[in-house]
């Protein structure tokens, strides 16, 4: 007898990230001694998020192709710059009022500059490419090869530093991006390595999600869910408007910009990595992880609806307008953990 476990998980927005994360949080909340009781490999799975993520980012980097046309550089670079720029602005605002720590009381308990920046910085690649496959052009799909540079903690660390919060030593910044760079070099030196490493990306997602979940307190989930709902709506509204006009400025209809106004599933891993690199963010990391995870789900639901509305009201891009003579293929697997 077969039980459709994967198909059931796939029905949940961001399921391969969210479901294991919540499973880990359930075990940590109701059976907190599990890793100590079983130890060995079982215990390591509960505490090995950073090691798994290091491998994940090597594989992610391998999926990024150096060979892109000027259009992809223009489109992807513009959307990347605008999205990160919005995160910087909001990081400065929240950092001014909150510093590195989270709000500790009231309706907004748990919100922090770290949570806002992590949610804003990273686009759901699988969702973007799927929506562009339906409402955009093939070369708009390929633009994510540039946008996928958002993946990982590097830009979040840079953004927090630019916002005037606790900075990171250069060694930490290099260490945050080094696995991605190593993967990019391997993938571009050898196409077979790109295909080999890219296939591992979706497999690693539930494992690091589970490990991250074991550090969360589910007693705070309901409150985080309400805040996560608000944060998800804010990501779509704030970045969606800016990206809409940025896309139109590069010759698009705005649809590609709206499709990029989401939060990637692997963004939920960023707060823990940032806190591990700089203890000043330790207090904010756990609530930020839950908030960003909730934001992943909310944006995965809202962005397709808003993108469909934008395509209906502003039209779909012309497939033949300024089309390049030859077009590179989209990345084998360009950072889309939340698409599974």
TrEMBL record:
Which terms in the GO cellular component ontology are assigned?
membrane
Superkingdom of origin: Bacteria
Membrane-spanning parts: 12-31, 43-64, 76-97, 103-120, 141-162, 168-189, 196-216, 222-246, 258-277, 289-311
Q: Which UniProt keywords apply?
A: Cell membrane, Membrane, Sugar transport, Symport, Transmembrane, Transmembrane helix, Transport
Tell me the leader sequence span. none
- So what family is this one in? Belongs to the KdgT transporter family.
Q: What is this protein called?
A: 2-keto-3-deoxygluconate permease
Origin species, per record, is: Phyllobacterium trifolii
